[in-house]
Amino acid sequence: MPNLSVTSAEFQKGFGRFREAALREPVTITNHGRDSLVLMSAEEYRRLKRRERRVMGLDDFSEADIAAIAATEAPIDAAAFDDERN
User: Fold this and answer.
1) Coil, helix or strand for 22?
2) CA 37 to CA 34: how far, in whole Å?
3) Which pTM does this prediction carry?
4) What gap in Å lies between CA 13 and CA 44, rounded to an integer?
5) Contact by Cβ (8 Å): 25, 38
6) Which of 62, 64, 10, 59 minimizes the C-alpha distance to 37?
7) Which Pfam families match (predicted)?
8) Are 11 and 29 in contact (CB under 8 A)?
9) Sheet of 4-7: strands edge to edge?
10) Of 20, 62, 59, 67, which Cα lies nearest the Cα of 41?
11) Whole-angstrom Cα distance, residue 55 to residue 68?
């Protein structure tokens, strides 16, 4: 189900109503027909922030880390996914 979408003008006129709606589902605010902002509850924002992951580059790994990764093997059950394509 797509979230609620309103123009910035509608949002300004009905802030209270859209603030209440954002407690239940994200509200997308558009500007000149394009998505501009998303209003969501603080609880949902915190949930998403907890899911953030740190991206590491190859330079962040030690040689021991790289050797350990190279020595790993996928579990036999993972072969079921060999035919999947992007």
Assistant:
1) helix
2) 9
3) 0.58
4) 24
5) no
6) 10
7) PhdYeFM_antitox
8) yes
9) 4-7, 27-31, 34-39
10) 20
11) 19
